[in-house]
Design a protein that fits this description.
Layout lengths: L1 H14 L22 E3 L5 E3 L7 E7 L8 H12 L4 E7 L11 H12 L18 H7 L1 H4 L12 E4 L5 E5 L8 H8 L2
Parallel strand pairs: 3-4
Antiparallel strand pairs: 1-2, 3-5, 5-6
Length: about 190
């Protein structure tokens, strides 16, 4: 009888134990921060996001031949107005949407300066979607890396708002202008 009871008890204990590791896949991973990334700017220099610790960062994918291209002007105005308060705009030219950024680094740099007076940091052209998207955009668009949400870059001039701790805090539609009250409220909030 003792062995029969032990066998029945063992059955229930073993039946409720999951020996697979599938539950560990659901454990939350530590949220990454943007500070771990290094990219190359339009002049070919390394740009280390670690140098922006403690600042609010607006990451935006840009294009020179898009209907939203005039947003460069508003982004530059934000940068000029709030740079002293620790706000930085970082532009990433991308040719992912209807080939609206066909230029070379030199052409993009010249276009931005001549037409919009851009002085905020501009990086070399990258992929912001697809299997070969840049690591920064993998961080921005994948919840398992940013801890906030999965998102898709819908079009040129989508904005990713990074808080002073280097964490993704908000994703803003491409159509939302840089001077929109939602953008200003985020910038001015402490």
């Amino acid at each position: 009888m003792y062995y029969g009871l032990l066998a029945i008890l063992s059955f229930f204990v073993i039946k409720n134990v999951d020996f697979t590791d599938k539950n560990n896949a659901e454990l939350p991973q530590e949220t990454q921060k943007i500070y771990q990334y290094k990219v190359t700017d339009l002049q070919g220099n390394e740009f280390d996001f670690n140098t922006l610790k403690g600042k609010k960062i607006i990451v935006v994918n840009t294009a020179s031949k898009c209907g939203l291209t005039p947003q460069y002007e508003g982004l530059q105005k934000l940068y000029e107005t709030y740079e002293k308060d620790g706000v930085v705009v970082v532009g990433f030219p991308s040719n992912d949407f209807l080939w609206q950024e066909p230029g070379t680094s030199e052409e993009i740099s010249s276009f931005c300066k001549e037409n919009y007076g851009v002085t905020f940091p501009m990086m070399q052209k990258i992929k912001v979607k697809g299997s070969d998207k840049n690591d920064v955009y993998s961080f921005l668009t994948e919840k398992n890396k940013n801890g906030l949400e999965d998102s898709k870059v819908k079009w040129n001039f989508q904005k990713y708002l990074i808080n002073r701790e280097g964490e993704l805090e908000k994703v803003i539609s491409p159509k939302t202008k840089p001077n929109d009250p939602e953008m200003i409220a985020w910038i001015e909030k402490e």
